[in-house]
Amino acid sequence: MLNAAFWGLVQGLTEFLPISSSGHLVLIPALLGIDEPDLATSALLHVGTLVAVIWFYRSDVAGLIRTPRSDHSKRIWFLLLLGTVPAAVVGLTLDGPIEIIFSEPGFVAIALIMTGLVLALSSMFQPGERTLEEGRRGDAIIVGLAQALALIPGVSRSGTTITAGLVQGFSRLEAARYAFLLGVPAIAGAGLLQGIELVDRGGFEPTLLVGMAVAAVTGYFAIGALVRLLGRSGLAPFAIYCIGFGTVSLFLV
């Protein structure tokens, strides 16, 4: 139970803060000399973070479901579906090789440092004023490609997609809104694939529900904390963390 709660805390914080959940799930075990979370734990942790983002943006999600044919909903549906395509294509065709090639702790540490540099560069862009409802096809493609890049462990999905949104002229809060709504199908897809594999293998411990609950609660508060920080200081604090933790990990793993 404690093990599940620990990984739930790690997943809930790192899935939404721009510091790479996949990177931490490789580096923390390497640094502490412990095993990575197993398949069952990973599957339920994804369910927990999915609950967190859906609940945080529940008004958006409810609107998309209740009035899918309104102009507002159709625009957002279009942006979400098109933005999901790059990561879906890459994930379904290259996910295995990516995990094998790029999951070495040393490489992950370098990828985390690169994430920090990207976040630092994002502070050079003056936030725009565009809203998600003003998004266009090109925005979805750019942000979607950024999300596909985050399939590499150590590259933050939220960090790259928010940065891509800022480059496209969205405001900080709207860039985060797009990034997290775009994360719903990505997180759901990852959880579904792991769930199918889990069913094939068999094996489920009820104590893992603790990890799912911890991931959901911490994930919800992590999104709120990030949204507040974005309004004040942008992504700079997370850039410092990624560069620092990545550098320390590079020398210790």
Description of the structure:
- The protein has 253 residues and is an all-alpha fold.
- The chain has one domain (2-252).
- It has eleven helices and no strands.
- The chain has helices at 2-16, 21-32, 39-56, 58-66, 71-102, 105-122, 137-149, 157-167, 172-201, 208-233, 236-252.
- Helix 3 (39-56) packs antiparallel against helix 9.
Q: What is the ordering of alpha helices and beta strands?
A: HHHHHHHHHHH
Tell how many strands the DSSP assignment holds: 0
What does the main sheet amount to?
none
The gyration radius over C-alpha positions equals 17 Å
Q: Mean pLDDT, rounded to whole units?
A: 87
Query: How much beta, percentage-wise?
Result: under 5%
**What is the SS-derived class?**
mainly alpha
Principal-axis shape equals globular
**Counting H and I runs of at least 4 residues, what is the number of helices?**
11
Range of helix content: over 70%
Model regions low in confidence, pLDDT < 50 over at least 5 residues: none
| Distance N to C terminus | 27 Å
Q: What's the number of domains?
A: 1
